[in-house]
């Protein structure tokens, strides 16, 4: 029995999920694993059938009376579906998981919809691929789930949405819609734009240049493989906060480019150094494991490209009582080995490196 199945659900079903794509089906999987009755609905019969076949929930039946409704549809139809669900099921709490919170709320208010039982929310989770076939119950584990309440939100309604977030393994965080949209512009929407623009530079690059690509560029552009149709909606709905960040970023890029045009000019090297230093300071502010802002020490192990080697490495680190705080894998084209960059708590680096070398592992580098 898994940890998920062993826990008692806080959420009382049935839970109606409108939209059986990645987020909707993933919520369905997580709740179904807890024994919650999940009703799935989707305008696409194929998407709905796939989500049901994979076990995310069941089809709607006559007389179903949901205790909670989750709207998981694209941003450009979120307001329409929220309004429909509120009117179809009066008194039932409706939440949505759209990545933009202010625009749907404003549209609903302009229409005069009774929003007493509506609570916007947004799980900060996802995958590069969408659709029911990519859904997983664990994508919310340890991730923030923003809940946007106002002074009129009944406490019992708020408790339902927060219970949903906790049941799927997420961490509820209360924000206003404005705070949410400014925040995701900085940490989600602009990073998507930057990754996409950088990756677009590869389309006309020489093959020999691309063969030099290492893990750094792969990390930087990982999220570039995203659906353009969805991001047109997201960026359009959150355009003002995104533009504010892009304008500031453009100014930084212009200043750095000016310095690089004449690196020997007075102040140029300082401008370049300050740009890199500010990046260091920004990265240090990002929450790490368990929400802590901590620096780790890293080392790189060369691993033969054969079955079982990574498992053996993990096992021997366990024998050394070394906990892995983070891990990155890199494979060089044509090479018969991989590189595992392992992060450990400060002070554990030397014990890990010495212990592994004594066991025959090849250490490529170690940085404290």
Automatic annotation (TrEMBL):
Single GO BP term: tyrosine biosynthetic process
Entry's EC annotation: 1.3.1.12
Superkingdom: Bacteria
GO molecular function, one term: prephenate dehydrogenase (NADP+) activity
Top-level enzyme category: oxidoreductase
Keyword terms: Oxidoreductase
InterPro entries for the chain: 6-PGluconate_DH-like_C_sf, NAD(P)-bd_dom_sf, PDH_C, PDH_N, Preph/Arog_dehydrog, Prephen_DH
UniProt keyword Transcription regulation, yes or no: no
Coiled coil: none
Residue span, Prephenate/arogenate dehydrogenase domain: 13-290
Pfam families cross-referenced by the UniProt entry: PDH_C, PDH_N
PROSITE patterns, alphabetized: PDH_ADH
Keyword Oxidoreductase: yes
Family designation: Belongs to the prephenate/arogenate dehydrogenase family.
Record-linked NCBIfam families: PRK06545.2-3, PRK06545.2-4
Protein name: Prephenate dehydrogenase
The organism of origin for this protein: Microbacterium stercoris
């Amino acid at each position: 029995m898994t940890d998920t199945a062993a826990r008692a659900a806080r959420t009382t079903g049935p839970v109606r999920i409108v939209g059986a794509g990645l987020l909707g089906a993933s919520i369905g999987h997580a709740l179904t694993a807890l024994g919650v009755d999940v009703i799935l609905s989707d305008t696409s019969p194929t998407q709905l059938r796939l989500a049901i076949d994979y076990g995310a929930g069941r089809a709607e039946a006559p007389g179903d009376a949901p205790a909670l409704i989750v709207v998981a549809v694209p941003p450009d139809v979120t307001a329409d579906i929220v309004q429909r669900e509120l009117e179809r099921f009066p008194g039932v709490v409706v939440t949505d998981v759209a990545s933009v919170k202010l625009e749907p709320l404003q549209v609903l208010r302009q229409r005069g919809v009774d929003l007493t039982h509506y609570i916007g929310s947004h799980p900060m989770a996802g995958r590069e691929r969408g659709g029911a076939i990519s859904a997983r119950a664990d994508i919310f584990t340890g991730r923030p789930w923003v809940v946007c309440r106002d002074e009129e939100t009944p406490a019992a309604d708020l408790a339902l949405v927060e219970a949903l977030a906790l049941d799927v393994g997420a961490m509820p965080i209360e924000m206003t819609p404005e705070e949410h949209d400014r925040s995701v512009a900085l940490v989600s929407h602009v990073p998507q734009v930057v990754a996409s623009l950088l990756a677009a530079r590869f389309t006309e690059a020489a093959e020999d240049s691309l063969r030099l690509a290492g893990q750094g560029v792969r990390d930087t552009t990982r999220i570039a493989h995203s659906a353009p149709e969805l991001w047109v909606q997201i960026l359009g709905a959150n355009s003002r906060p995104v533009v504010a960040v892009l304008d500031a970023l453009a100014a930084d890029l212009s200043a750095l480019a000016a310095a690089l045009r004449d690196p020997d000019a007075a102040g140029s090297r300082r401008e370049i150094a300050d740009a890199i230093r500010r990046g260091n300071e920004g990265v240090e502010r990002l929450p790490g494991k368990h929400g802590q802002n901590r620096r780790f020490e890293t080392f790189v192990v060369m691993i033969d490209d054969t079955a079982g080697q990574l498992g053996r490495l993990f096992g021997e680190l366990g024998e050394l009582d070394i906990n892995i705080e983070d891990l990155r894998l890199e494979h060089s084209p044509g090479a018969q080995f991989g590189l595992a960059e392992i992060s450990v708590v400060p002070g554990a680096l030397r014990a890990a490196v010495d212990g592994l070398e004594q066991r025959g592992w090849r250490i490529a580098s170690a940085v404290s």
